[in-house]
Design goal:
The chain contains 21 helices and four strands. By secondary structure, the chain is mainly alpha-helical. One of its GO terms (cellular component) is lysosomal membrane.
Length: about 575
Amino acid sequence: VTIVFLYENKTKYLKIYFTLRFYFTILRMPVHAGLAVGWILFGVISALTLVFSFLYIRYYQHKYDKELSSTVTSILALSICLVTSALGPVDIFLVSYMKYSNGTFKEWANITEERKSIEDTVLYAYYALYICVMVFVFLFLPLVYFFYEEKDDDVQVSTKQRCCTAMKYTAGFLFMATILLVVGAFAPVKIPPNTNQTEWRKIEYMFKEFASNNGEDALSFVISCLTLIGLLLLIIYTAYGMSAWPIDLLKGTQSASSERMRVIDERTTNRTKIEAIRNKYSNGRPMRQRDRIKIAELEETDRLMSRQEAQLESRELSCLSKCSILLRPVEILAGIVFFLIALVVFVSLLLTNIDKVMHSLGWRMGYALPKRTLPNPVDIMLVYAQMIFPLDYIIMSGIILYFFFCSVMGIRKIGIWFCWLRMFKIRPRKTRPQGLLFMCMMLMFMVLAINILTYMVMPQYTTYGGQHYLQPENRTAIDPATNHTYIKIVLTTQPCNTHANTQLNTDVCIMTRMSFLLTRFFYKVWFFGAAYFFASWGFLGMCLIGFIVALIRRRKSAIDGEVDEDDFDSVDDELIRA
């Protein structure tokens, strides 16, 4: 089935045709300078994301425990995450650029083939990036992870053996991807026309459905499953990062000198306890097992506090500590700005959810909202920002980046867990390659979910951008010559909404491809739309919990993330290498 699936869709998913079509369209864009600017900016942002990913991975990776394969894979995976996020503003810009502010199409956009060409280009770009995400999630990241796990410093293991073992474990991920593709391709997402037909007719109907959409349902199903996982990660990490990040900036860090004095006092108390236990056995009698364990724990704590004391003393004398006092007002200002952004996003998502409860099409349609009824602060802000080009796109890109960095901040603060076991910590210069690979895989899930979150926070803007349309209205007028009243049709400019196309029976409003993919699949598989809706309530609840936790926690240490209980093994490795 997989071979047939790949063969039938070779022109859609496996050929370089999409890439050539993508660049061919860009070469045509100079005819429409605005469109060229949009794609050029996207190319520049893509190049910048690669540079940022390189610096970010290099900043967090371990100083000694690293490997070229895991580093390159992590950089490429993080770049794909950021590029996928950057495509959303370009999508909105392109549909908005098709129309004038008075609601009429531009001359070139009146040609249906021109509009269709641009829409297909953006759609293929989404498909290409989504396929890259799938390839990294199901192939490259597991392969490199298990390849690194097979590395053994004590026993010499050949590269061939490591590759074979890594491929063996990666085959499980490929099998899972195949199962999801097959289920998405042939699952009866729509009821057959005649429910009384034979089983063979039902199977034939499913194959016809698969052929009619060229396997797009299969890809959409896999992406929706990955997005559902990403939403769970957003609830845990992004919601907490959005709440805790501004509070931490407002609180600041503890003073290095006062914290060092506190550590000295605690260390003195700890040594007193050790001496008290040892004095109990000064007469030479054997020490009890419980006391030996207690002394071992206290001595380990003493070593940890000794490293903390040395690190705090170094920080106290450094220039960074003195400069942080001067930068404190900037830190407070950033905390206020991020808190206001979090508040506006929270209120917008809450109002959108309430609007969906009251006016959506119901759970059978994935709680799709045809028209905004309640005011949405983010949507309103973006509408007014359209008056100053390109302020609305800068705000839109800033909100997406804000979600991304809140996700990164949440992962750094919470760490990577499996149930109740902490697997990896993300810390500067001390993150293992496995931790970086896990973080990149989680970010890929979360970037897919950020598209859903963006759609929920600002549904009107992410669907139609700054488009308007001309709506005919009947108005009463008086003929000055005869003083008789008559009805005349007046065209008024209105913001685009879902009802516009159905009321006027024509495509007066062009949907972004992101919203098109979401609403089309929500219609076919309502479960995902309903799951996303309920997950958004979980996101709001986690934001409140994270805000309360961030308020009651004490200020973070001046050496936060630099000294930890798990550092003793790495310290030994550093001493050996030295």
